[in-house]
Design goal:
single chain, hpI Integrase, Chain A, 404 residues, DNA polymerase, domain 1, DNA-binding, Integrase_catalytic, DNA recombination, 3 domains, mainly alpha, 3-stranded antiparallel beta sheet, globular, 49% helix, coiled coil
């Protein structure tokens, strides 16, 4: 497939309402953008002739620059083609701009966000966009060179995030992780020297605080199952939550994406949304009762079991994401009232279904089997996760000393 380069004005303004001039590189209908480093008013852009209008005082200089940038990009594309290099749009951009690049931190941040949007990783896009906004607020400008991001900068940033925005230690660490990711990318693109890397060793260390994972016990799950005084909305929420729990804490995205065609031979067959892994699990008897509740609404084998995504535009990732996000909020709101009716003091959310499975499993299931049920790629992840729910050895050790 052919690749091409084009000058475009990105329709994403900066804090001053100005729009960035970029080189768009496209391969196989996938595009990525190289920011030129100049911003203009949208009225100053001639979309038809692809040039800056005379209304901009720097029009002549900018148009010469744009012409040169496009010429350089096209020449590089021809060179890559002559070398028979088959690469994605993003890889082509890295080849073209690998040397002599002077992109700023926020330009690389925007490229990162653009890539997430193109890949339709909207949950990550929402999270990382928020993290970038905190860094912008701290820096008070989108002009930030990687050479400026040193230990002093990061320490001041951490103090600012905790004092000004009252962010938790976990949230602060997530922001540092994003900065580290972009700094590593900048090193690969030769934007900044590896000698200036501010992380690791005696420099800035990223260490997440230990978190407490609390799941329900068997008595509490039975109390939820036995509730009778529920509204129709609460019954539906309970069904979705129990469906998740009975499949080892299946993520809400995968629950809502479940179709009737995924259910056959008394098993659930599905591909995980998070990492595309294929799973096949036996359907517990309790789940068949949940499925019976929705059979009247089944029209086709490809119908969704649960109603939340039935009216979604499946070709529009943002619409699917928004409907899932709205549904999850509604579920969590309903779970608060369900917990109250069941006289459960613990906080219950959709994600607590996963913690609940881990809590009840304890140390009764072999870690390798738990790894398969949790769909973890690494056994270490499973061991660290399950350690939150295994207390017997510590309890026995304590009893052996104090019970005299």
């Amino acid at each position: 497939m052919s690749s091409n380069a084009k000058i475009v004005l990105r329709k994403k303004p900066n804090s001053k309402g100005l729009y960035p001039l970029t080189v768009r590189i496209t391969k196989n209908r996938r595009s990525t953008y190289q920011y030129i480093g100049h911003y203009i008013d949208i009225e100053d852009w001639d979309e038809k002739n692809i040039r800056v209008r005379k209304s901009n005082s720097n029009a002549d200089s900018l148009n010469k620059l744009l012409s040169q940038e496009l010429s350089n990009a096209n020449k590089a594309l021809i060179d890559l083609q002559s070398e028979h290099k088959d690469a994605s749009a993003n890889q082509i951009k890295k080849e073209i701009y690998a040397s002599g690049n002077s992109a700023t931190f926020f330009e690389l941040a925007q490229e990162h966000l653009d890539e997430l949007e193109i890949a339709e990783k909207l949950n990550r896009l929402s999270t990382d966009s928020a993290l970038v906004s905190y860094i912008i607020k701290f820096n008070k400008s989108k002009q930030l060179a990687f050479q400026e991001i040193n230990e002093r900068f990061l320490k001041k940033l951490m103090i600012y995030l905790k004092a000004k925005h009252e962010l938790s230690e976990t949230s602060v660490m997530n922001i540092l992780v994003l900065i580290r990711l972009l700094f590593n990318r900048a090193i690969k693109l030769k934007i900044v020297s590896r000698e200036l890397y501010p992380f690791g060793g005696d420099k800035i260390k990223i260490k997440f605080p230990e978190t407490s994972k609390v799941g329900l016990n068997i008595i509490e799950v039975r109390a939820i199952e036995a509730l009778e005084n529920l509204t129709l909305s609460e019954i539906h929420t309970r069904n979705v939550w129990l469906f998740s729990f009975n499949f080892a804490g299946m993520r809400v995205t995968d629950v809502l994406w479940t179709k009737w065609s995924d259910i056959y031979d008394k098993r659930l067959h599905y591909r995980m949304n998070k990492n595309s892994k294929l799973l096949s699990l036996k359907i517990p008897d309790k789940v068949f009762k949940i499925l019976d509740y929705y059979k009247e609404d089944k029209r086709y084998a490809t119908d969704f079991v649960f109603p939340e995504l039935k009216k979604a535009n499946l070709d529009d990732a943002k619409d699917v994401y928004n409907k899932r996000k709205t549904a999850t909020k509604k579920f969590n709101d309903n779970l608060k009232s369900i917990a109250k009716k069941a006289k459960i003091d613990k906080k219950i959310t959709m994600h607590i279904a996963r913690h609940t499975f881990g809590n009840i499993a304890g140390d009764t299931i072999h870690p390798f089997m738990l790894q398969k049920l949790y769909r973890h790629s690494d056994l270490k992840t499973t061991l660290n996760y399950q350690a939150n729910f295994i207390h017997k050895e510590a309890d026995d050790a304590l009893d052996s000393v104090v019970n005299f």
